[in-house]
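Re: beginner question about structure tokens

> Can someone show what the tokenized structure looks like for a real chain? I only ever see the sequence side.

Sure, here's an example I had lying around. Input first:
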Amino acid sequence: MKRSDILRRIGVTPPAAARLRVIVDTDAKNEADDQYAILHHLLSPMLDVRGIVAAHFEQKAGYTGKSMEESYREIEKLLGLADITDVPFLRGCSAPLRGLKDAPASEGVDFIIREARRPGKLYVAVQGTMTNVAAALNAAPDIADNVVVLWNGGGPYPQGRPEFNVMQDPDAVRAVLAGEAEVWQTDQSVYSTLEVTLAELKRRVYPCGKVGRYLYAQLEEENHLAYDPGFLLRSGENWTLGDNATVAVLLMNRWRGNWHMEHAPVIKEDLTYQPHPNGKMIRVYDSIDVRMTLEDLFSKLELAYGRPIA
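And the corresponding structure tokens:
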């Protein structure tokens, strides 16, 4: 089924001028929340989702060389459950950069470059490692003026701290922060506010067709497998849908005053921040509207898939 057929069930038609071109870049099999963010992008009519690029999570996976392929297969599975057949998904880089200027080739990197060379801004929603977008910008510096990097990652300001998405490829983050592309950052202190309980997901997501049942089941399973009392982000009955921040920053109005401009920091070896007064200016979000973001996700899932399964 075409994505447009699914969007027709939602019944919301934004003005044509509001449409934004987006590529979703995701380490989809890393844990359990990327799947929610992928669907949120796909179910948002104002987002012209050009494609989805699979990202690795090699630092977590132990540098097996297989994590990007796992993400690719998870995207394939999710689109099948969502009954969306016309959104391309592509393999990205299978390993971190080998230095700030490295530009490894992949079909996903080539796709980012092609889309960025079309007229108008291209928003790249980076929900994991920065490898793919850094490789594209390194390989084709001419695309930088057309690219807005929605960076879901980094520790809180001013000091920063080691953060999962940065850990996967610190040099890729350094390359993007030193480059010319526009960056909108949602750091860990902000994306971690997109918190839900399992009961909430059981009531609002699980009833939404095959894809809703899968979204809930795979997150519940991950919660049992990965629970660690020392990991402060999880209580045992909660989860953080942090990757949905890349949708939130596009949906929210621009008069909220919930972001500020900051000189891009230097990422030190310990992954904390070093101030860089001559660094380029990046947009750093101080907060996001959690109620609006989560209710928008739940409403779109219910409208699109909240009906009996044939």
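Each token stands for a local structural state, so reading them left to right follows the chain. The first strand starts at residue 20 and ends at 26.
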